[in-house]
Amino acid sequence: MDIKIEDSWKNILQEEFNKTYFEELISFVKNEYRTTTCYPKGKDIFAAFDHCPFEDTKVVILGQDPYHGVGQANGLCFSVHDGISHPPSLINIFKEIETDLGITYPSSGDLSRWAKQGVLLLNATLTVRAGMAGSHQKKGWEQFTDAVISKVSEHKENVVFLLWGGYAKKKGAKIDKKKHHVLASGHPSPLSANRGYWFGNKHFSKTNEFLQSKELPTIQW
Question: Rounded to 10 degrees, what is the CA torsion of 127, 52, 142, 33?
């Protein structure tokens, strides 16, 4: 199956694209986009990969579903296009960065600036129906993104994986923790953050400390 995705990822994921489950998944997604409103836009479904080539990937952040509100999802987990109000989880991410690193809260919620530095912003499910959280779960995306995590774990070393919330932690089972650095905490959503499971995790400074220890370039969060 010919999928429009950045070349380095295409090479490493080609065997997934040819599997029956993936062909069934793409058939389902195409039908959904044809018959109802879905997010992100078709051209942005694989944006996480397009913005962050395989060889450049040094940090992986795992989200769950794309945002399902009008104009929010842009194919990068937790990210929104410029001019879109910051969703609650993104607000809490920026608040933690502000406290952790002393960086002023940004006006732009577009995280492509992170992706271009080697941060893979990967949702477990890459598409969703408008206004219906979780509507494209258990259709094959999870199997595909498990394969992505496995490929990164297998073919790279010293990648920092940020696992926020129970859903991301489960997907962390695919990571070889002897080769990579895993940081886990509660989810930045208000439900979790307000119970004390998010703020103070210092994942952004800890990521840079690890990268620095391996003589890798740090991330300008």
Answer: 20
The mean pLDDT value for 138-148 works out to 97
Residue with the two structure tokens 């607000």: 91
192-207 confidence digits (pLDDT tens): 888 889 999 999 999 9
Give the C-alpha separation, 75 to 59, whole Å.
17
Structure tokens at 10: 């295409």
The C-alpha torsion from 87 through 85 and 65 to 105, rounded to 10°, is -60
Does residue 2 surpass a pLDDT of 80?
no
**Tokens at 172, concatenated:** 């962390």
Lookup: tokens for 108: 């732009």
The residue with tokens 């950045």 is 6
Are 78 and 110 in contact by the 8 Å Cβ rule? The answer is no
Q: Known catalytic residues?
A: 65
Q: Could you check whether the bond before residue 40 is cis, i.e. omega within 30 degrees of 0?
A: yes
* DSSP-derived secondary structure for 96-138: HHHHHH-PPPPS---THHHHTTTEEEEESS--EETTBTTTTTT
pTM over 0.85? The answer is yes
Q: Are strands 59-63 and 160-164 parallel, antiparallel or unpaired?
A: parallel
- Please give the share of the chain, as a percent, with pLDDT higher than 70: 99
Q: Over the chain, what is the mean pLDDT? A: 96
Record the tokens describing residue 206, joined without a space. Answer: 């800890």
SS3 state at 60? strand
